[in-house]
Amino acid sequence: GVNYANDYSDGIRGTDEVRVGPVRLVGQRLAQPRQVKLMAFACFALAGLAGLLLCLLAQTPQLLWVGALAILAAWFYTGGKRPYGYRGLGEVFVFVFFGLVATLGTLYTQAHTLTVLGALGAYGVGALATALMVTNNLRDLPSDQVSGKRTLAVKWGDRKTRSFYVLLVLSALFTALLFAVDAPWSLLALLAAPVGLQQVTRVARGAAGRDLLPVLAGTGLTQLLYAVLLSAGLMLA
Known about the structure:
single chain, mainly alpha, 2 domains, 10 helices, 71% helix, 0% strand, globular
């Protein structure tokens, strides 16, 4: 839903007319804007239905408000008159909703409580999700400057954005060491380090434009491995 909404809103603004990254439906005129907007809302509706059923099964009706906020955040990232993604706040919302809300929300539906380990895991997942956003905005920095999209990368510039990416990936991996104090098997998450460090090296060495596409894929793989291996380590503990 977020991706469809972003595709639609950026497309009708003309932000995606010149694009280095993956194909966009509206910006590259592969689909009608109305169709893409409809798909975005269809995805939101399905997510809302799944969330409603989850809240009923887990007896956590208070999380319905969290789900509603998540859908609003998905739309207003690039939608509406004053999208927060155009003001350098995309990374903040990604960390909150793809990291803290997703991880701690999952924990709360199962355990009806929040824990320190849960918060550490939420930080690690959120940091890697944010690193994905940073990679995306670093890749699009030149075109975003031209179109007036004031992402964090545009505000901070190339050098600071790269340093931020490195900090996010390394700090996420470091959380596995903190987990190990209470759950030694959580060190399994460090098996994601070689993939993550490869992306850190690429970014630090100045990969730009299309050369950042493998970094985007590699960062996503790092996040997947980190989450799966950390979960396995906690189960073994």
